[in-house]
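Task 17 of the worksheet. Students: predict the tertiary structure of the chain below and write it out as structure tokens. Keep your answer in the requested format; marks are given for formatting as well as content.
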Amino acid sequence: MTYEEVMKKAKSEIGPYCKVCPQCNGRACKNQMPGPGAKGVGDVAMRNYDAWKEIRINMDTICENVTPDTSIELFGEKFAYPFFAGPVGAMKLHYGEKYDDLEYNDILVSACAANGIAAFTGDGTNPDVFKGAAAAIKKNHGQGIPTVKPWNIETIREKMDMVQEAGAKMVAMDIDAAGLPFLKNLNPPAGSKTVEQLSEIVNAAGIPFIVKGIMTVAGAKKAFDAGASAIIVSNHGGRVLDQTPATAEVLERIVEWNQGRMKIFVDGGIRQGTDIFKALAMGADAVLIARPFVQAVYGGAEEGVKLYIEKLAAELADTMAMCGAASIKDINRSMLYRPM
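Model answer:
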């Protein structure tokens, strides 16, 4: 099976909202919720994608001819590549009947672990979703990053017990999920957190805690004050608040403030190895990619995920070689070009 065959099969297996477009840029699924589209006028997902394409890369091949080292280390764990599969939930609601959340997470966690990266797993209104994700992570020796919704502290403590039982090396919370329509008016309740409440959650986790949904320096500072080990610069694909900036537009400002205080991930419209390179050159430690991994699972299960990882890895390594970066640490801001 080739990656092109995976995408062709995904087109017939996924849906009805995701169109498996040649360029996954948010245009065909604009403002489709439920579904993968963005909220309101639906342009944030498109803006995420377009912002990365506005950034260009400086080529420099007068350098030592070596095979680039694409590996990274985060919190004592080594990964083959600086990209991760992002958390996705409510599979049947958004992507059709083929997989439920438990089946999707089981495939994704195993395939990512087998190919040198980790999958962030989703959470949902059904408690079995998080239980299933934790079981998949445990089966893969802790190689997965469970992502919990911003429930009340009692519910979160129960989920953190599952995280620790699974042997996960890190845990995340998509704090911006407070804006998801299907999480409103639920029991247990979910919603935004104060710094003090978030600090209590970080302490309950007991392992490196990642806060997803940071779009400002002020938000990054609050996450740091709460004890987070990392943040994910993310606008949830535009699905929680209309008219936000693109993640690429705010990343450097947050990196400049951070000064190494926390690890910084970024997501939103990242689709190719060149996009990953740009994010790293702007100061991110790693990136998350969500929807293309959904397409890979629907089109080829474990093999589809493997092929997509290999595609991204080859594109990233080629870009590094063409810019004189022998390792991830060599990638820097001077390798990017932006018109004056």
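Marker's comment: The chain has eleven helices and twelve strands. The chain has one domain: 3-337.
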